[in-house]
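Q: What residues go here?
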C-alpha cells in the first residue's frame, strides 16, 4: 500500500522505492475501514520520506512508515572539464540518468537549456549542470548594429538601430533608432534583433 502511494509521484521519472520494515513487535488491531495514507515529509516523494498510514475504524491507529524514494531522470552533465566563461556546445554536454533526489541545487533536463549558455564556474567531467552554473550569453553587445522590428497584425516594420547596452534574449535594452535618432526600449529576440510594440 505504501509502495502504491509513493509510486503516484507527479514527477516523470524512473523510480526505485525501498520501504523500511516496521518493528515486528508492533501489534496493530485489524482495521474495519480502508486505510488512509499521506506523505508526512517532504512535500514531494523524493529522497528520505515518511508516509503516515492511519486506520479511522472502530479501533483507530496510526503508524509512520519510513522509505527511500529514488527518482531517476535524464539530466544535463558535462562530458569533459570546462572552464568558467566557456560557452556550452554539443561537444561539452550530454543527457545522463541520475537520481534527482540527490541534486539539491537543481538540474537541467533539456539540452536546449544548456546549449549556448556560459558557465559561471568551472565544472568537472560527469558533473550535473545546475541552473546556477549557467547564464545566458549576450545576444547583443553595446554599440552593435541591430534590426528593430515592430509588428502588429500582418504589418512588420523594420528599421536600423544601434544598441546602447548589452542584452540577452528576452531582456529589454536601450536602442537608438538610426532613422529618427530617438532612444527607445526594445526586447532582444535574437542576435542583432530587437522588437518593439507597435
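A:
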Amino acid at each position: 500500500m505504501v509502495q502504491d502511494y509513493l509510486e503516484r509521484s507527479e514527477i516523470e521519472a524512473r523510480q526505485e522505492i525501498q520501504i523500511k520494515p516496521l518493528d515486528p513487535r508492533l501489534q496493530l488491531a485489524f482495521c474495519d475501514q480502508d486505510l488512509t495514507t499521506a506523505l508526512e515529509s517532504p512535500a514531494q516523494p523524493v529522497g528520505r520520506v515518511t508516509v503516515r498510514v492511519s486506520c479511522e475504524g472502530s479501533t483507530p491507529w496510526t503508524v509512520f512508515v519510513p522509505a527511500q524514494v529514488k527518482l531517476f531522470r535524464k539530466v544535463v552533465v558535462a562530458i569533459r572539464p570546462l572552464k568558467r566563461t566557456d560557452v556550452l556546445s554539443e561537444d561539452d554536454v550530454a543527457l545522463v540518468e541520475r537520481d534527482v533526489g540527490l541534486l539539491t541545487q537543481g538540474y537541467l533536463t533539456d539540452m536546449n537549456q544548456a546549449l549556448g549558455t556560459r558557465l559561471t564556474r568551472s565544472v568537472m567531467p560527469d558533473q550535473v549542470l545546475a541552473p546556477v552554473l549557467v547564464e545566458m550569453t549576450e545576444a547583443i553587445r553595446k554599440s552593435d548594429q541591430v534590426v528593430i522590428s515592430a509588428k502588429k497584425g500582418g504589418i512588420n516594420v523594420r528599421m536600423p538601430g544601434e544598441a546602447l547596452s548589452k542584452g540577452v534574449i528576452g531582456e529589454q535594452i536601450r536602442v537608438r533608432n538610426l532613422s529618427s535618432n530617438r532612444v527607445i526600449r526594445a526586447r532582444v529576440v535574437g542576435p542583432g534583433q530587437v522588437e518593439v510594440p507597435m
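A: Context that may help when evaluating the design: Residues 145-197 form a domain with the SH3 type barrels. fold (CATH 2.30.30.760). The chain has three domains: 2-71, 72-136, 145-197.
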